[in-house]
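RETRY 2/3 - previous attempt timed out on the joint model. Re-submitting the same 747-residue input unchanged.
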Amino acid sequence: MIQGIGLHEILVVSSLMFFLGIYGFFTRKNLITILMSIELILNSVNINFVAFNKYLYPNMMQGHFFSLFVIAIAAAEAAVAIAIIIDLFRNIKTIDVEKVSTMKN
Amino acid sequence: MDFQYTILIPGLMFLSFVYNILWGRTQAPKIAGLIGTTSILIAAILSYYTAYQYFFNVGLVNGTFQAIIPFKMEWLRFNDLLFIDMGVLLDPISIMMLVVVTTISSMVHIYSFGYMHGDDGFPRFYAFLSLFSFSMLGLVIATNIFQMYVFWELVGVSSFLLIGYYYQKPSAVSAAKKAFIVTRFADFGFLVGILLISYITGTFDFGLLNDPNGAAMTQGAGAGFLGLSVMTWALILMFIGGAGKSAMFPLHIWLPDAMEGPTPVSALIHAATMVVAGVYLVARMFPLFHIAAPDAQQVVLAVGGFTSLFAAVIAITQIDIKRVLAFSTLSQLGYMMAALGASGYGAEEGIGYTASMWHLFTHAMFKALLFLGAGSIIHAVHSNNMTDMGGLRKYMPITHLTFLIGTLAIAGIPPFAGFFSKDEILVALHQSSHLWYWVEVVTAGLTAFYMFRLYFNVFWGENRHYHHAPHESGLAMTFPLMFLAFMAIVSGGFFMFDFGQFISANLVPYDIHIHWDVAGFSIAVAVVGISVATVLYMKPSAIPAKLANAFGPLYKATYNKFYFDEIYLFVTHKIVFGLIARPSAWFDRHVVDGLMNALAWITNLASNSIKGVQSGQLQHYAMSFVTGSVALVLFLLYFMTR
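RETRY 2/3 succeeded.
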């Protein structure tokens, strides 16, 4: 428990992070940047888990475990995503998301 | 007596067909011919042996000839009572037909060696001849109506194949189609008749159906439709099938056109065997016709009687010799039908039945003879028209003599075969119906006239200018002529046998007497016909042309076969096609297809307008996903907080 900082402030930070992520996800064309935006979204959620656990149910551990779980999954997801991106680059020499539409037709 | 070998009679022909159609082309053409001819000769010998055994060794049991079924296998079972067999039925008429079919077919097989010599399709021709012989033999030995129907269609197919044998000629192709469509149309009546009869009586078996004391005679006697009983309708429908095959009026139109086929085929199929299948059908069902449905028998009489006169009138004006013979075939088939129609069931009254079968026998002999003779003439002159012929008696002595015998036989001059059988038919008609008796007497006179018109025009008259002098045909062609001429003499009553001893409606032998009152009169009529023909045609004269002019419109109508082809064309093209088929086709094309097309068009339009949603852009998808989830959250919040 940090003095002078309540749940409210932390939620503001996590919300900012979340919408920053969403914004990045929508506007960036580079797949790597989009991946980074996704990480921002995931981590804002992690902050929420930990904050709610700490402020509302201090005797319990579920929030902590959940955020650890999310971090693990996110690591795996990042590995897979980067592998896809690398493969994509090998095939079509670009990682611009707007060019990646060969499945359309 | 063990008759099991009779299965070989059609069986051999089937094997010969299979061999010739599969391997005929790979060998010298002669081999195909030899295989076909050998098979049919063996079949003929087996048939004669069967006839000898049946009539003389088995003979009469309790005063009647018994039907024997030496071979039978179940083919299709519907329920406990109703089933279809395939088998062999031996009784007097089926044995007679075996003899007729194998005899004529052997002669035609031998004859074709000469006639079809050098033709490209020689093996194919023999394969089809074997197929036809197989089907026809299967038809005559059928044990039940359904087996008969199966083989009935098979003879139709082989007839189609043989009429269309010269398939490069458009006229032959259309004649084959015409024959097939007309007979098939009639066979529809036959099929409905079979279904009705099997529905009423619960059986297909000839033995059960034709038992004069059996249940079938009274079943279906109840009121049916338009005042006729169900059984009457069933038999009339079956008779329609028979009339189609036997080319009875008004289904006669296919037979003259069928002359497009090779002449041996005309002799075998369209004169001697297949076309009598209709007569045979009525004879086969005769007890049922006579006892259970006398009205249907009257229809047979009327149709047969009318056809014989009608065809004889047309035959007078035709100039294509094969067509004259075709119309004469129609006329003679009319005689046979009329005799069956007029016949009673036993002894003196049953003479019509015997006479009809006898005429079938003698007609097969002399009409095949006439057709093969015509083939010999055509082979020599290379034309079918009698206007291209004349004075041929000097060039072709054997053909001339045998043709004369055939002509005398059909004209009804004793001691040739036609006299006896025709006389018995006239006696039968005399007993039962004076109207049709006189019709047939007139027809007999016309027959003598048009046959001698043909004879004089071809063999006498002025000498035409031929490209090369016509010469007599080889032995392969003249031997069948001589054999059949011999048969045309001896199958009459004086020389060979008394037909009534073997074939009668109730299977009890009956002594035929010649009724000299009827016979004398018919001879007189025939002599008048011959004399008129002699005066008009023996020496070239201007009288026939003058007569044709004097009868102007009538002559023209007769020459054009009373415009029946045109009437049929009008009915099919203008009425059936124009009023039914075309509107239906329009409805199908525009309404039915239109509905489907409209549906497809709407689907296409809808998907075109929304396919932009699937842009393939990841971020567009993400945007709609997020928008959607935000909307969902807002929606839930709105309802949850209320």
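Chain A has one domain: 7-92. Closing ticket.
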